[in-house]
């Protein structure tokens, strides 16, 4: 049984506190199908999220099977299913893959048990015939069935549905309500559905009516018209505006006992008409279900991410375009750079005029060599930084609500973030290695090539992880993308590769500019003659290679920490 005792949710108003929920009391027995209805903004979704524990209440308590959820622990992940208004499935996956992923993230079992569970849920929700269809090709009603199926894999004892019939045609709406009714008759499950629609009310065991956060009625559908003194259910909403919300709440408290007895009697009659007995009110003695291990969740999430990448043509084409085009852009400067390096000599002459002319030519050549070497290295670093930004700026922010839903269902934050890091590490490795090999073929670096490769990897990894941290802490993907683009845009002017910054500003900004450290470390690995040429045209001071390694590693670590903090924080809106 689910019971609410004096639930209040208070927020600050402009002049005085505002109650989103005000002294809500109700009881819902096992095997019960309840609708929460009321005018827009009355607190329906707020109450549902409060039951789920997504929104914290100001006072009062919810009790589940006699357990105070606030004091004795919240719902276990396997006890509750929550179907939100937003989609919880990826468009690129099929129906079968979506349910399988949900099952492997939530249910501990053998391969055969998982497969049998998937088949059972597909059949229960009427999705067997379209199991191989991609989510993006489903109708609105089919997507709602899929959302329900993804919750049913853990056999939840209470199922909370937020506006699952909104936007559907009448037939699809009826099918979904009938499905929810059937689900409430299995395993003593409580199903609570928030809805704007007043259709198919006869299928519900009880109707809860809210008005501006106050409970105006909770009883059987048949008694609702009598209670509000109207002829049709459509007249209930206009009737609510004739009295103050607090008056409706006080009125309901006076009549609650009589209407609850009638509701219990009708509930009993419905079960007996089906040849069944209502489930017992006592708590089940089922053993607690085991949550899948970290590795199971990690590999499930990692497989899903690569599957989505391979099916997302836009993202795949963008990745391939950057991998192919960016190294070509760098290689365009290679022929000139090779010729300059080849002509770098220090020959002397007995003729003074010729020697002066030769020294002038050498100085000009050194300047050209230094400029080419420094510019090409920085060009590589900036382009890899741009790749890193594209890799991760939308990676968490773009699927934030799905991530929150999966965390709510028992997915470990560590497993989720680890899968992202391994996926991004694969992108970083491919992008950086190809940039190095392609450019090296056209423009052999005069210096420690392995050192250069290491800094290309670190430059990409630093920007990728920092942007992942930005993504995890932003409210939406557009905000994350914009901040990440700004971060890349500031890399070149603040690196000191073009113009040396004033010492005061350089000391402040330099630690945060990953491009400087990758550029500086690569330049310091050049041959001594080439390094002299670079020093001749660049006024910025270069840092030791070991320090560059440590600073870039620190950038990677900070990015990971920011990503973990952001991913761990709840952000449903």
Strand content: 5-15%
Round the Cα radius of gyration to an integer and report it.
Answer: 32 Å
Specify the oligomeric state: single chain
Q: Give the class from helix and strand content and strand pairing.
A: alpha/beta
**Helix share bin:** 55-70%
Could you give the order of strands across the largest sheet?
Answer: 6-7-8-3-9-10
Shape category: elongated
With helices defined by DSSP (H or I, 4 residues minimum), what is the helix count?
A: 21
Number of separate strands: 10
Averaged pLDDT: 89
Cα distance spanning the termini: 30 Å
- Tell me about the largest β-sheet: 6 strands, mixed
Low-confidence stretches: 341-345
Describe this structure in words.
By secondary structure, this protein is of the alpha/beta class. The chain is 57% helix and 10% strand. It has 21 helices and ten strands. The strands form two sheets. Strands 6-7-8-3-9-10 form a six-stranded mixed β-sheet, sandwiched between helices. Strands 2-1-4-5 form a four-stranded antiparallel β-sheet, with helices on one face. A hairpin with a 2-residue loop joins strand 4 (59-64) and strand 5 (67-68). The longest helix is centred in the middle third of the chain and has 41 residues, at 352-392. The chain is elongated, with a radius of gyration of 32 Å. The protein starts with a strand and ends in a 5-residue tail after the last helix. Residues 341-345 have low confidence and may be disordered.
């Amino acid at each position: 049984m689910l019971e609410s005792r004096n639930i209040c949710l208070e927020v600050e108003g402009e002049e005085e506190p505002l109650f989103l929920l005000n002294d809500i009391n109700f009881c819902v027995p096992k095997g019960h199908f309840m609708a929460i209805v009321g005018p827009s903004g009355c607190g329906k979704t707020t109450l549902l999220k409060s039951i789920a524990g997504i929104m914290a209440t100001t006072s009062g308590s919810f009790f589940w099977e006699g357990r105070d959820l606030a004091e004795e622990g919240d719902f276990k992940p396997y006890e509750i299913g929550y179907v939100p208004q937003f989609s919880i499935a990826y468009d690129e996956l099929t129906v079968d893959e979506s349910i399988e992923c949900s099952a492997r993230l939530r249910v501990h079992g053998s391969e055969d048990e998982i497969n049998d569970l998937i088949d059972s849920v597909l059949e229960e929700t009427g999705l067997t015939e379209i199991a191989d269809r991609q989510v993006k090709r489903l109708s609105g009603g089919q997507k709602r069935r899929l959302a329900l199926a993804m919750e049913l894999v853990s056999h939840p004892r209470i199922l909370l549905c937020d506006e699952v019939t909104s936007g559907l045609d009448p037939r699809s709406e009826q099918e979904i309500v009938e499905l929810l009714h059937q689900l409430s008759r299995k395993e003593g499950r409580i199903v609570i559905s928030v809805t704007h629609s007043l259709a198919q009310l006869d299928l519900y065991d009880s109707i809860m009516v809210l008005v501006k956060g106050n409970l105006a009625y909770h009883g059987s559908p048949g008694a609702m018209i009598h209670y509000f003194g109207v002829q049709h259910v459509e007249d209930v909403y206009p009737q609510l505006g004739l009295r103050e919300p607090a008056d409706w709440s006080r009125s309901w408290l006076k009549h609650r006992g009589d209407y609850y007895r009638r509701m219990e009697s009708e509930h009993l009659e419905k079960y007996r008409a089906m040849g069944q007995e209502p489930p017992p009110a006592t708590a089940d003695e089922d053993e607690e279900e085991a949550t899948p291990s970290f590795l199971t969740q990690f590999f499930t999430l990692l497989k899903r991410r690569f599957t989505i990448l391979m099916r997302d043509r836009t993202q795949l084409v963008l990745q391939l375009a950057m991998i192919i085009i960016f190294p070509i852009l760098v290689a365009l400067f290679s022929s000139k750079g090779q010729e300059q390096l080849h002509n770098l000599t220090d020959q002397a002459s007995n003729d003074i005029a010729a020697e002066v002319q030769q020294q002038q030519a050498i100085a000009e050549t050194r300047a050209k060599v230094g400029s080419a070497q420094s510019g090409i290295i920085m060009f590589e670093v900036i382009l890899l930084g741009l790749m890193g930004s594209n890799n991760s700026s939308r990676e968490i922010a773009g699927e934030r609500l799905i991530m929150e839903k999966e965390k709510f269902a028992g997915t470990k934050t560590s497993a989720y973030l680890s899968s992202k890091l391994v996926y991004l590490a694969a992108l970083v490795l491919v992008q950086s290695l190809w940039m190095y090999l392609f450019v090296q073929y056209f423009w052999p670096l005069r210096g420690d090539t392995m050192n250069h490769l290491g800094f290309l990897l670190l430059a990409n990894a630093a920007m990728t992880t920092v942007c992942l941290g930005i993504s995890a802490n932003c409210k939406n993907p557009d905000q994350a993308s914009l901040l990440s683009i700004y971060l890349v845009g500031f890399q070149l002017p603040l690196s000191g590769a073009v113009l040396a910054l004033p010492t005061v500003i350089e000391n402040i900004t330099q630690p945060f500019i990953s491009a400087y450290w990758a550029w500086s470390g690569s330049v310091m690995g050049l041959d001594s003659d080439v390094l002299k040429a670079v020093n001749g045209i660049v006024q910025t001071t270069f840092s030791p290679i070991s320090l560059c390694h440590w600073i870039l590693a620190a950038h990677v670590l900070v990015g990971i920490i920011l990503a973990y903090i952001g991913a761990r924080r709840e952000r449903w809106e």
